[in-house]
Amino acid sequence: MPIAIASDHGGFQLKEDLKEFLLKRGEDLLDLGTNTDSMVDYPEYGRKVAEKVSRGEVEKGILICGTGIGMSIVANKFPGIRAALVTNEFMARMAKEHNDANILVLGGRVTDNENSRRLVEIWLSTKFAGERHQRRLEMIKEIERKLGE
Ligand code: RB5
């Protein structure tokens, strides 16, 4: 299954760099845009990736805007999405180990290319710890279920 990736203009340059890194790592990618650094609206691109993950069409996604904040807000509106904005290695590891984040969010104006590659690598290679963390994810699912009634 490919990793879906998208950005707005604030994350475009970082997206292109991460694509090169991920392709070299042997990952299959689904690039859902944007394809230039012209100004676009991040909700449109956040939605593209979050919908695919939420529907189970892909398992994982990466979203990038200027700060990562807008993309996180959008992605976490979708059922089953656990989007984590990470800015350091500890957060990248915890995003997977404790939260089983299915979308990694980065800020193209916050984290440089080299550090972003490192954060993506950590998120991809870390395993979800399960146990008490699984119970907490079930609690989140239950909140979603109740809100959807
Ligand atoms: C675009 O200027 C900027 O607002 C966007 O990239 C992102 O940072 C929003 O959260």
Structure description:
It is a single chain. The protein has 149 residues and is α/β, with parallel strands linked by helices. The protein has one domain: Sugar-phosphate isomerase, RpiB/LacA/LacB (Ribose 5-phosphate Isomerase B, Chain: A, 3-Layer(aba) Sandwich), CATH 3.40.1400.10. Helices cover 48% and strands 15% of the residues. It contains six helices and five strands. The protein has a five-stranded parallel beta sheet, sandwiched between helices. Strand 1, helix 1 and strand 2 form a beta-alpha-beta unit. Helix 4 runs parallel beside helix 5. It is globular and about 40 Å long. The mean pLDDT is 98. The site of D-ribose has 8 residues, from helix 3.
Q: Which small molecules are bound? A: D-ribose
Following the backbone from N to C, one meets helices and strands in this order, namely EHEHEHEHEHH
User: Any idea what the CATH superfamily is called?
Assistant: Sugar-phosphate isomerase, RpiB/LacA/LacB
Count of beta strands: 5
CATH architecture: 3-Layer(aba) Sandwich
Number of helices: 6
Task: Give the key terms.
149 residues, alpha/beta, Ribose 5-phosphate Isomerase B, Chain: A, 5 strands, binds D-ribose
Task: Summarize the structure in short.
With 149 residues, the chain is α/β, with parallel strands linked by helices.
List strands and helices in order, with pairings.
Elements: E1 3-7, H1 12-24, E2 29-31, H2 42-54, E3 60-65, H3 69-75, E4 83-85, H4 89-97, E5 103-107, H5 113-125, H6 132-147
Parallel strand pairs: 1-2, 1-3, 3-5, 4-5
Helix pairs in contact: 1-5, 2-3, 4-5
D-ribose is lined by residues 8, 10, 42, 65-67, 69-70.
